[in-house]
Automatic annotation (TrEMBL):
Superkingdom to which the source organism belongs: Eukaryota
Reactions catalysed, as given in the entry: aldehydo-D-ribose 5-phosphate = D-ribulose 5-phosphate
Gene name of the record: RKI1
A GO molecular function held by the record: ribose-5-phosphate isomerase activity
Similarity section: Belongs to the ribose 5-phosphate isomerase family.
Name under which the protein is recorded: Ribose-5-phosphate isomerase
Entry keyword set: Isomerase
EC number, UniProt record: 5.3.1.6
Pathway the protein takes part in: Carbohydrate degradation; pentose phosphate pathway; D-ribose 5-phosphate from D-ribulose 5-phosphate (non-oxidative stage): step 1/1
Cited PANTHER family: RIBOSE-5-PHOSPHATE ISOMERASE
Family annotation (Pfam families): Rib_5-P_isom_A (PF06026)
Enzyme class label: isomerase
Length: 303
């Protein structure tokens, strides 16, 4: 049964009137049970804040900044939504560059930290914080390194963050390293003499040390001690860190020694990242950036 034409017209007029009120944002009396709309539905973007204090940078800091800025410009694309933020002294420049793109560019993005330091960087810059358990797939992760060899294997963990860093690196479709020129070496252990950082559960540290000394050939492996606290460094995961130096003939095959260390019971993670990085960016003293790719290509980028 159809309604008479005057009734249909009446209903249509009422609907059109109500629609024009809504679209022209004219407030209308509330219906029973209806809630008032917020006065504006437009989200207000808070300004972001750079983590880098203003002032002149030393040559090394400038090199870190160049590497970080170039890597951000080349690897964070507008469509990227989930970004991993690594740890160390080069990463603040990564965040600085991301922040410089503005609140609008970053408003739909979430940033995944590799530890306490990067979490603080993300939060204090005004970026949105997420975690890898919410975002197990990351578009791109940018991180520092203690040293990087010709095949882009690297030592990480100088700041005891390598367990989370490896998880965030593995979760990323693209993992990119940023560092200054001192980290660009032929084989690992060239300038970084402290050894391979190894995160161990506290209960097992003495046994792991014994194995490193007598089985794996690192007689000088030591438990990392804290500087402003009595006792050992405790990682963000509540574990201890051992630093294990190895001879050159061992370090030229980092994957082999990484696998051997990882097999020791009590070891949580080893600070050797092998065959993981897509590219490594090294800022140079002359203001250029050396970019090494995982296919062996090397580029020089002028600032
Ligand atoms: O645990 C710390 C991390 O692996 C760092 O990314 C690494 O130590 C490099 O740090 P930096 O950029 O300060 O040399």
């Amino acid at each position: 049964m159809s309604l008479p034409t005057p009734v249909v017209d009446e209903i249509n007029n009422l609907l059109n009137e109500r629609l024009s009120m809504i679209t022209s944002a004219v407030p209308h009396p509330l219906l029973p049970g209806e809630q008032a709309m917020p006065s504006s539905t437009k989200s207000v973007l808070k300004p972001l804040k750079s983590p880098i204090p203003t002032g002149e940078l030393s040559v090394i800091e400038k090199s870190k900044q160049l590497a970080a800025w170039t890597a951000v410009d080349q690897h964070i694309r507008p469509e990227h939504r989930v970004i991993g933020i690594g740890s160390g002294s080069t990463v603040p420049y990564v965040v600085e560059r991301i922040v410089s793109k503005g609140a609008e560019a970053n408003k739909d993005r979430v940033f995944i930290p590799t530890g306490f330091q990067s979490k603080e960087l993300i939060v204090t810059s005004g970026l949105v914080l997420g975690d890898v358990d919410q975002y197990p797939t990351i578009d791109v992760t940018l991180d520092g390194a203690d040293e990087v060899d010709v095949e882009l294997n690297c030592i990480k963990g100088g700041g005891a963050c390598h367990l989370r860093e490896k998880v965030i690196a593995e979760a990323a479709n693209t993992f990119v390293l940023v560092a200054d020129y001192r980290k660009n070496v032929e084989y690992l252990g060239t300038n970084f003499k402290a050894g391979v950082p190894i995160e161990v559960v506290p209960f097992a540290y003495a046994k792991v040390l014994q194995n490193l000394h007598h089985v794996l050939g690192s007689p000088n492996a030591t438990l990392r001690m804290a500087r402003a606290k009595a006792g050992p460094v405790v990682s963000d995961n509540g574990n201890f860190i051992i630093d294990a130096p190895f001879d050159r003939e061992v370090m030229v095959k980092p994957y082999t020694i990484m696998a051997q260390i990882k097999m020791l019971t009590g070891v949580v993670e080893v600070g050797l990242f092998c065959h993981m990085a897509r590219a490594a960016y090294f800022g140079n003293q002359d203001g250029s950036v050396t970019v090494k790719w995982n296919d062996g290509k090397i580029e020089q980028v002028k600032a």
